[in-house]
Design a protein that fits this description.
alpha/beta; 393 residues; 53% helix; two-stranded antiparallel sheet; DNA binding; five-stranded mixed β-sheet
């Protein structure tokens, strides 16, 4: 937007203010914003027609083509439904750029639909919401069409090239309810969150399955390898069935760190509410220790205090000890990424909002669409934050 345009807009706004125009008159349904949208589009269409014919309205034509009246077209905009008068030409060769012939929705409408869908709203709920926003009847078929168009984006995203190296990749699981064969069943959605060489987060992929296992994970790791991922320093996950074998097959140099976040979560699963705060505090010296020896002493101390009430907790740490302590072989900056919950939990909380709101998904595609849209909005925020940080440095 150039300086002249900015000045023109400022003058128009000043004119409204000077005339004591009521804000409600501008913003209400059928108000000035809606009328302004209509006039601007129609003005642009007339300019396009002038350019198409080669002469202005009411001027003499240099060819046998001429204006041939108008066609009324209903356009759904962010200010509601707007009736637009689209000029026609005698030869029917006018193809407007600002408002293509088959376009019925203005920029921003589809984004609004996808934004509501990403929040876990059903098609029928979105229809009601749009009717309240735009005072126009939107069919459920149109809403479904807009959301279905995302599937191609999902496929492109799931097959996009990855970085060659991710120092850390977290694998986590969400359980969703899906309709299948006239039944509602639980399915697991696995999310891979990578931390790249610059410390930036990137969600590498989503996979949905009723059952996990070596074959399932082998397919996922092979897929990531085919997308360009050559090496993972640390793969961090819960004790998922078949995960270790799949890592060994595709990335033999990768160390499989059992996720501290999951270990803590599992440790607290059966702890009474009154003990949870103190027990959590007593676990912390184990995973924040500087050396494995210090961590072991902290576990012994924890066992002496809590083993009588909760014997399964210390036993679980001992059983998984080798894979839990891998991160202690790395610098403090990498350790913190592994044992703090920030990266994983921030992603999980956003995705779980969607799955909790949706309750039951009609099919697997609906799961992918909803989670992909949420991920897309999340990663855009990450990009903005990364840019802001780079400017502050």
């Amino acid at each position: 937007m150039n300086k002249k345009t900015n000045e023109s807009i400022k003058q128009a706004v000043d004119l409204l203010i000077d005339n004591d125009t009521d804000v409600n008159t501008i913003l209400k349904e059928g108000g000035l914003l809606k009328e302004l949208t209509k006039r601007l589009i129609e003005k642009a269409l007339q300019s396009e027609m002038n350019n198409h014919l080669g002469y202005d309205k009411y001027s003499r034509a240099d060819n046998d083509n001429a204006r041939n009246g108008i066609t009324s077209k209903k356009l759904i905009s962010e200010h509601g439904a707007v009736e637009i008068e689209v000029p026609r030409d005698r030869h029917n060769t006018f193809e407007p750029v600002i408002l293509p012939k088959r376009q019925k929705r203005f920029d921003g409408f589809d984004d609004k639909v996808l934004s509501l869908y990403a929040k876990g709203m059903s098609i029928s709920d979105i229809k009601i919401q749009l009717q309240e926003l735009y005072s126009v009847e939107i069919s459920e078929g149109l809403i479904s069409q807009i959301t279905d168009d995302v599937i191609d984006e999902v496929k492109a995203w799931q097959s996009r090239p990855l970085e060659e190296i991710y120092p850390i990749v977290f694998f986590d699981c969400l359980v969703v309810k899906v309709r299948q064969d006239k039944r509602i069943i639980n399915k697991a959605v696995y999310v891979a969150l990578g931390i790249d060489l610059f410390g930036k987060k990137d969600i590498l992929g989503l996979w949905i399955s009723e059952n996990e296992g070596a074959k399932f994970w082998l397919g996922n790791f092979t897929e990531m390898e085919n997308r360009g991922l050559k090496d993972i320093l640390i793969a961090c996950s819960d004790n998922l069935t078949g995960m270790s074998e799949a890592i060994e097959a595709v990335y033999p140099k990768t160390e499989h760190q059992l996720c501290i976040v999951h270990q803590i979560r599992n440790s607290l699963k059966y702890v009474s509410y009154k003990d949870r705060k103190q027990l959590s505090s007593d676990l912390k010296p184990i995973y924040t220790a500087v050396t494995e020896e210090q961590a072991h002493l902290a576990l012994v101390s924890f066992e002496e205090k809590w083993n009588k009430q909760y014997p399964q907790i210390a036993k679980s740490w001992y059983n998984n000890w080798d894979n839990l302590m891998i991160f202690l072989g790395y610098p403090e900056s990498i350790r913190k990424v592994i044992y703090t919950t920030n990266s994983v939990e921030s992603v999980n909380s956003q995705l779980r909002k969607v799955t909790n709101n949706k309750r039951v998904f009609p099919n697997d595609n609906a799961v992918f669409k909803s989670l992909y849209l949420t991920i897309d909005y999340m990663t855009k925020k990450w990009t903005i934050m990364d840019y802001a940080h780079s400017k502050l440095e």
